[in-house]
Amino acid sequence: MYFSRVRVSSNITELSRLHHVLRGNGYGVHQLLWDLFPEEKERSFLFREEIAGEQLPHYKGVRGEPIYYIVSQREPSKGNPLFTVESKPYTPKLSAGDRLSFKLRANPIISRGEEGKKNSVKHDVVMDAQYHLLRELARDCGVDDNGKKSDLKQRVLASWLASNNPAVTAKLERILEGNERYREHADYKRAPVKQFDLALKASTDSALEKWLTDKGNKNGFVLTHDEKRDRLIFQAEGYRWHALPKKGRSAGFSSVDFEGEIEVTDSKLFVDSLLTGIGPAKGFGCGLMLVRRV
């Protein structure tokens, strides 16, 4: 295995325009990086895109161009004129019980069977958690629970504010109290709209925690717990939707940036996951877990 840092070559003309073309262009970036592995007929690498200026703040001339971290089975070619490639062997030696800090950009989806359909349907975890909660609250309020998420949210919020429905209030408080990272926000005197939005975020946070926990069970790790603060060392932020117009008008995928600490439970499974990745959309910069010892 190899770990590589790939930068756009400093001698590329009109670099400031080039990075706008590259950034966020999942198809284009994937193909360009694949050119670093000319003998590979199938993708055998994971990558993560960052902003060079944030990753290398002390490097002269570094600006807002993208920089890529790659984990691959083979060493990438250094002969591509577009990129400057720095590589080193990547042979993680880990044992059960080792604790690591991690960063992971992933595409969190779940598959669920739906009534009237033979095959399971994939759902965006963030949107699914929010829509599921809003439909529950709509039923508590006695309002229509169908329609777009944004319309449903406005309908539920308006009904709750007008009626001060105790069932909705109690549910929002339970959601905040039930999430260890949001428990401190369960302030009954908080402005209702703020409490409503926080409960939606807490519900989403819990769904993302469950998604990563399930992935950990299959890939040889668990999230670790901060005993002093009585919470998991975990956060999930930076939800983004990435459109893929070549696949259709509404085609695309979401990504979330996870970080925190984990403990290795099965070293073989975990090391395998560092190369094979976690979750889908690996060809678009998701799935690569960056780790270091703590």
Write a structural description.
This protein has 294 residues and is of the alpha+beta class. It is built from 8 helices and 13 strands. It has 2 domains: 2-91, Crispr-associated protein, domain 1 (Alpha-Beta Plaits, 2-Layer Sandwich), CATH 3.30.70.1200; 102-293, Crispr-associated protein, domain 2 (Alpha-Beta Plaits, 2-Layer Sandwich). 35% of the residues lie in helices and 27% in strands. The strands form 4 sheets. Strands 5, 8, 11, 12 and 13 form a 5-stranded antiparallel sheet that branches. Strands 2-3-1-4 form a 4-stranded antiparallel sheet, with helices on both faces. It has a two-stranded antiparallel ribbon with strand order 6-7. Helix 4 (125-141) packs across helix 7 (192-219) and helix 6 (166-178) packs across helix 7. The radius of gyration is 22 Å and the shape is globular. It starts with a strand and ends with a strand.
